[in-house]
Amino acid sequence: MNKTEKKFLENIHRQTLVANGEAVLLAVSGGPDSMALLYLFAAVAPVLHLRLGVAHCNFMLRGKESDCDEAFVREVCQALRLGCHLRRFDTNAVALSWKKSIEETARLLRYDFFDELCREAGYTRIATGHHSGDNAETLLFNLFRGTSIEGLRGIRVRHGAIIRPLLSFTRREIVVYLEEKRVAWRDDHTNEGIECDRNFIRNRVIPVIEERFAHKLMPSLQRISEHAGELEEFINLHISRLLEAHPGLDLAGGKLHAGTMRQLSMFERKEILKRALKLQRLSVSSNVLNRIAGLLDNQAGRSVSAGAGVEVVLQDGFLRFRQTGDPSDHR
Questions:
Q1: DSSP string across 239-287
Q2: Contacts (Cβ under 8 Å, ≥6 apart) of 271
Q3: pLDDT value at position 195?
């Protein structure tokens, strides 16, 4: 193994991303990041005794180029003697039917496909090729959009069965590795535009910042991401202990003892309310959190909308989540 492959293996061991003998599904688009992921896993698979498989999604968004990407991935898998799972999606039609953006639709289709393969072919891990630059873009995107500590964490190295073992690698490291190994890849020219917010951040915002602060942005954002992740873990542990210590804070039952909530800091109150909203499958926003938290300073009987036909009312000493029967009710 060369230097990059050794670093990759060390990352897997240090972050306990894959155990010996596991079956790993590699998400391979044909681009440089996913091709590096493919060849790095091929290099460490004999050491870890892994069973590898490849999944490729053809979203049929770039005409002949999409079909060429598919053919390219198929040929590479044949050369490496790896199982290749291909799936085509009429993404435009699905997006129209679901009333979602192309990007969100493609993401949902992709991960539904991966989950299906895990169930049917016994894969225990899904590996994607996200690197440190992707994490920086995500963090900045979340920051510009308005985010909490959770958003500052960026892309997680592990989320359920999904692992991202390239997050500590830069795009430059990936390209150098591919050139050293003489590995070809496919370029997606739609990534070069600026119409999409993420592309604008990648192609305009980050280069301008790096021109002024050379070699400082990426390491700084990576540290922020790591610190936010550590802080989020601490907060989750603290709130879990808080909920265990106070039976009156019944998230599953949709009722929170008002007296107990008033004894907590505003930060703790909002963290508990976030969890309550998520259990009700409601979106979390600062406006909603402020409205609900404000009920604690009001008289009994007052209520506010939590969205999607759910309201929160201060009643009998509790904040209670209840259905209004009218999803358009936003009192």
A1: HHHHHHH-TTEETTTTEEEHHHHHHS-HHHHHHHHHHHHHHTT----HH
A2: 235, 239
A3: 82
Range list for CATH 3.30.465.60 in the chain: 247-323
Q: Report how far apart, in Å, the C-alpha atoms of 95 and of each of 103, 165, 199 are.
A: 9, 30, 20
CA atoms within 13 A on the CB side of 263: 9
For residue 331, name the pLDDT band (cuts at 50, 70, 90): very low
Select from 3.40.50.620, 3.30.70.3270, 3.40.640.10, 3.40.50.300 the CATH code of 3-224.
Answer: 3.40.50.620
DSSP 80: H
Q: Which CATH fold would you assign to the domain 247-323?
A: 3.30.465
At residue 281, the pLDDT reads 87
Looking at the whole model, is its pTM more than 0.90? no
Per-residue pLDDT tens over the stretch 149-190: 888 989 999 999 999 999 999 999 999 999 999 999 999 888
Structural contact between residues 326 and 314, judged by C-beta atoms closer than 8 angstroms: no
Retrieve residue 274's tokens. Answer: 């976030």
How many residues are present in the chain? 331
Structure tokens given for 167: 């997050």
Parallel, antiparallel or unpaired: strands 23-27 and 125-127: parallel
> What tens digit of pLDDT does each residue of 218-269 get?
889 989 999 999 999 999 999 999 999 999 999 999 999 999 999 999 999 9
What per-residue string of b and e applies to 111-137 under the rule 16 or more CB within 10 Å gives b?
eebbbebbeeeebebbbbbbbbbbbbb
Give span(s): CATH 3.40.50.620, the chain.
3-224
